[in-house]
Amino acid sequence: xxxxxxxxxxxxxxxxxxxxxxxxxxxxxxxxxxxxxxxxxxxxxxxxxxxxxxxxxxxxxxxxxxxxxxxxxxxxxxxxxxxxxxxxxxxxxxxxxxxxxxxxxxxxxxxxxxxxxxxxxxxxxxxxxxxxxxxxxxxxxxxxxxxxxxxxxxxxxxxxxxxxxxxxxxxxxxxxxxxxxxxxxxxxxxxxxxxxxxxxxxxxxxxxxxxxxxxxxxxxxxxxxxxxxxxxxxxxxxxxxxxxxxxxxxxxxxxxxxxxxxxxxxxxxxxxxxxxxxxxxxxxxxxxxxxxxxxxxxxxxxxxxxxxxxxxxxxxxxxxxxxxxxxxxxxxxxxxxxxxxxxxxxxxxxxxxxxxxxxxxxxxxxxxxxxxxxxxxxxxxxxxxxxxxxxxxxxxxxxxxxxxxxxxxxxxxxxxxxxxxxxxxxxxxxxxxxxxxxxxxxxxxxxxxxxxxxxxxxxxxxxxxxxxxxxxxxxxxxxxxxxxxxxxxxxxxxxxxxxxxxxxxxxxxxxxxxxxxxxxxxxxxxxxxxxxxxxxxxxxxx
Length: 542
Hints:
By secondary structure, the protein is mainly α. The chain has three domains: about 25-245, no CATH class; about 270-420; about 445-540, no CATH class. About 70% of the residues lie in helices and about 0% in strands. It is built from 22 helices and three strands. The protein has helices at about 15-25, 30-45, 55-70, 80-100, 105-120, 130-150, 160-170, 170-185, 190-210, 215-230, 240-245, 270-310, 320-345, 355-390, 390-415, 420-440, 445-450, 460-465, 475-480, 480-485, 505-525, 530-540, and strands spanning about 460, 490, 500. A three-stranded mixed sheet has the order 1-2-3. The longest helix has about 40 residues, at about 270-310. The chain is flat and about 80 Å long. Residues about 1-25 and about 255-275 have low confidence and may be disordered. It comes from Hymenobacter armeniacus. Keywords: Membrane, Transmembrane, Transmembrane helix.
């Protein structure tokens, strides 16, 4: 749409500062002005005093739909595979929260939404971490940009405009004051008690003034405004994209001191010194790979002979200490080995032709031996699960080993394809994200309870099982007979030891937990926090 001036008319005078401010903070579009209040109302209706469930899925759908509406049709974001991966992850994570209501599903949902907003902000980003940091940086500025764009009513007098100006001016100090209040309340219990009384009085006064809105509700709506503004309003953040643009997928050979088209004479002394330094580095790498390969071969031979075939713990053998200490040390050894490979193959040693074949061969053997070591770690974890049951950390070790095998595969790519460390970080970050989505798809607590309540286990950690979410209780109720036949029942947690209790005490604690769960299910009648696992548990407990 073209704008023309009448003959003799002049363009309105605009100061350079005002022009710069309008360029840095363009006004909100009509779609953004519509989505902001709609999103705040949706956030309040879905999450105020609600549990997690289908509400997270619906809010995720709102954020995804908002991005698709606000994006131009020719935007580079639409051609980004990372963007569509984040869209799929957001919807999948929200669906898993609606099914299981688990914390790891909520984490996958939140990480996916942050990735989505980061790739919308900077479509050329590839690193998952940089996308998340970009989204957080943009969200921290978005609500301030919205408030800066709010103007006083044009029909108001000077007093209204003055009040509007000072009201906007006080927003940032009030937010900072609230942040320090939370910090002091956590650090000082006396201050927390006194400030709680003061806020209670203020809340009661607001309740008389506005019967349907409390102080906590107002603060929650303010939080909703900050969240929705971060999702709807994009503040460009270039820092992480600029930093990432310096890296490449493959290592380039550095030719220091070499002439280019006759512009500069080559410094042969510098080239000779570089060659000598490179040869020294090759000798160091060859010595490291050769010696450590021999040492690791001995360790793997012992593990294969001891653990891989027919391992049975002797009576009185401390399997927990064997697994915990050995697993942590071996995992650290694998990570250290990967770091050493990355160090030696970081620069021109990738192009040292006299010894490159031997260097690659030694590094490959070392990586493969570390894969054998990772199998031994997995077997230690398997034996612990076989004899003592499943716990959260045991599941974590399993998925961590999946990432280790993937990471070792990418190290082989680095060795043979001269890939850069940036390429490895990018690929492994995507693997971590895939594992997070895989964890979100599991009903882990119920599966842990079903496995640990097998009659073959002599000891049952009933305290650990009762500390799980209420959706586990139908499994405990269905297998409560196992508690009567167990040799030992403990109130241990996963992280420490506790008291041994009788079967009668365990049954009493289980009945108490079931009674509380029934009362909680009966008291909660809203649909926002509904998830299928809790509904299924509620039906089973009835």
